[in-house]
Design goal:
mainly alpha, 57% helix
């Protein structure tokens, strides 16, 4: 890449981050407002392209915008303690584990419902019945596939 400044479309292509996302990162304060040409075009340096790639990789690993902002600050700090970075990573791993458990429970529920759907010409469908009801399928289906689904307790608002 040349050392000259790139307009937003060129920066997007060079970094793999869409121009829309670059503008969004600017709007939410994740990146600094860029320099502009006399005609108002945003311009970006190689350093900023590198920052966009860092953000993209962080987001690809599932870090939230807040976590990405923290990681970006730690990455840019010369005297950063690696312990803070490790803690962010470990906390994120725990969040991912929880999301995986939730998705496994959803999968088990769908498998249970699909197993009990005849899939024929009859209109009765446990899958649609489940979607139309106020049931919480995950607790019973995630561990006991043969137990019936139980209703969600609805708290008064």
């Amino acid at each position: 890449m040349n050392s000259h400044l790139l307009k937003i479309g060129e920066a997007a292509r060079a970094s793999g981050v869409s121009a829309k996302m670059i503008r969004h990162y600017e709007k939410i304060g994740l990146i600094q407002k860029p320099n502009r040409t006399y005609s108002g075009y945003r311009t970006y340096s190689e350093k900023e392209i590198h920052i966009f790639r860092f953000i993209k990789q962080s987001r690809n690993l599932g870090f939230s915008m807040k976590q990405t902002n923290e990681l970006l600050g730690l990455w840019q700090a010369r005297k950063r303690p690696s312990g803070k970075v490790k803690k962010l990573a470990i906390d994120h791993i725990q969040e991912l584990d929880e999301r995986i458990r939730e998705m496994q429970a959803m999968k088990a529920t769908l498998e249970h419902l699909a197993d009990h759907c005849r899939g024929d010409e009859r209109p009765d469908c446990p899958i649609l019945n489940q979607l139309a009801s106020a049931w919480d399928p995950m607790p019973s289906c995630s561990t006991h596939k043969d137990r019936p689904l139980r209703p969600v307790s609805r708290k008064a608002k």
